[in-house]
């Protein structure tokens, strides 16, 4: 929700001490985080210490479904004892093809990640100039909206000005934690980011937050 990251490096240190099973549910990291887009564990350079890695195809890959990666023994165990797997249908072939091509694109076109990181920096700098600092290296940004401001009216105004954003509102979060949620993409241009920052500045002024 916030775009913040779990401290996987610190958790990895604890794993070395206590030998627990290290599970990373990396819904927004696959194809985004890390030098090669391998996820948040790559970002923290702890991939070799992760026992079970979960991810989704519905974010960077733009389709549906997900995956669990782990040892051969773990995967065989899940095939026989995971009820959600046992009683589900197979993933459609077109989804497999789309994800495979997405992985191929990540490997063949490293400039995709470079563009994403550049756009993330541009947006982070722009939000900071509006008094909305963002310290996470992720591509998800949260703009807090005060509880006395109608967040749906804010979102509608942003959309009317030509930009689509998501709202995170009660009861998904408490009233005090409502926010506008922004996801930056590799395909955004500098003009797109400038347009959004201009729109956000105008809306902040109009709604006085």
Low-confidence stretches: none
Distance between the termini: 20 Å
Average pLDDT over all residues? 94
Please give the number of β-strands.
6
CATH fold naming of the largest domain: Aspartate Aminotransferase, domain 2
Count of helical stretches: 8
**Tally of distinct domains:** 2
Q: Provide the structure class.
A: alpha+beta
Net shape: globular
The CATH superfamily of the largest domain is identified as: Type I PLP-dependent aspartate aminotransferase-like (Major domain)
Helix share, percent: 40-55%
Strand content: 5-15%
> For the largest beta sheet, what order do the strands appear in spatially?
1-2-3
CATH level 1 class label of the largest domain: Alpha Beta
Radius of gyration: 19 Å
> What is the ordering of alpha helices and beta strands?
HEHEEHHHHEHEEH
Largest sheet report: 3 strands, mixed
CATH architecture level-2 label of the largest domain = 3-Layer(aba) Sandwich
């Amino acid at each position: 929700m916030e775009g913040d990251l779990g401290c996987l490096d610190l958790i990895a240190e604890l794993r070395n001490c206590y030998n627990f099973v290290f599970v990373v549910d990396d819904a927004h990291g696959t194809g985004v985080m890390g030098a090669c887009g391998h996820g948040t564990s790559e970002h923290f350079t702890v991939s070799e210490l992760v026992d079970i890695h979960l991810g989704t195809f519905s974010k960077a890959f733009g389709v549906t479904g997900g995956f669990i990666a782990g040892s051969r023994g773990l995967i065989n165990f899940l095939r026989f004892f995971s009820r959600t797997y046992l009683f589900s249908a197979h993933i459609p072939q077109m989804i497999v093809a789309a994800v495979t091509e997405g992985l191929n694109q990540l490997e063949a076109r490293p400039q995709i990640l470079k563009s994403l990181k550049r756009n993330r920096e541009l947006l982070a700098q722009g939000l900071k100039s509006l008094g909305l600092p963002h310290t996470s290296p992720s591509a998800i940004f949260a703009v807090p909206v005060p509880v006395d401001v109608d967040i749906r009216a804010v979102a509608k105004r942003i959309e009317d000005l030509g930009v689509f954003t998501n709202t995170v509102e009660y009861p998904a979060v408490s009233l005090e934690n409502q926010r506008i949620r922004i996801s930056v993409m590799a395909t955004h241009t500098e003009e797109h980011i400038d347009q959004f920052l201009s729109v956000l500045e105008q809306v902040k002024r109009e709604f006085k937050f």
